[in-house]
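Render this sequence as a predicted structure.
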Amino acid sequence: MAVDAHMRKRATAKATTWRQLEARLNMYRMHVRYLMEEVSLRAEQRIPTFDPVDTDPADAARMVRMQWRMPIGPIRSVTPWVEAAGCVVVAEDFGTSRVDGLSQWVDDHPVILINQAAPVDRLRLTIGHELGHLCLHSSEVTLTMEEDATRFAAEFLMPEEVIRPQLRNLTLGRLHDLKREWGTSMQALIERARELNVISPEKRTNLYKSLSNKGWRTKEPLSDELAPEVPQLAQTIGAAMANKGLTREEIASIAGFSGPETNKIFAAQERRLRAI
């Protein structure tokens, strides 16, 4: 049985805000459950689950990358990998920057809800964070859940074996280049360097001061140049149902929507979509 919804949020997020988003996630969970009763989803991979007591988060991330046969270095786009494992990713504007994402298992099918208003580098880390929750916290809650998910995401997006030598002698210019290469924020790269003991606490502080002097703590450069994270699995499912001859009304009904006008998630698009 799945535990309650996982959520990546800032400490200042209002309880009313994240409760509303949790309610939306629960709604999407119901839609996915209805749909999966009618659709046989053949995923290329699966999202494995681990015992968080016995498995280090970084080890779990390495095992996922190995099981999915991912490239050794940077991941150009995270969403297709997650969706290829049968996870439905839904992107919408949360109306707040204080909550980044939520996730929960629906029977054997995981769902991730992400805040599309966030910059791409933050979205990527959020997807990695929520994937960490799905892998490590599918059946039980631990006191270090958020820390575990953050460590999972760091190793998943920035594998120690590859990135460690690149994090030495960090400067703002170097961080700029690494952000373009790895698709993660400069601040995430600084934290990764400190986590791996490649830089000292003093160096970390100085780098953050340099970011602040340029106004990059709140808005970093390059974020708009990164490849966008665009979920497609839900619409691919809708297209597959349409190809079977089902009408927009029938698809909406099966997914548990009141009508096609409210089915914004599993609506078939007219452009070509590749079935997974």
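Summary. The radius of gyration is 19 Å. The mean pLDDT is 88.
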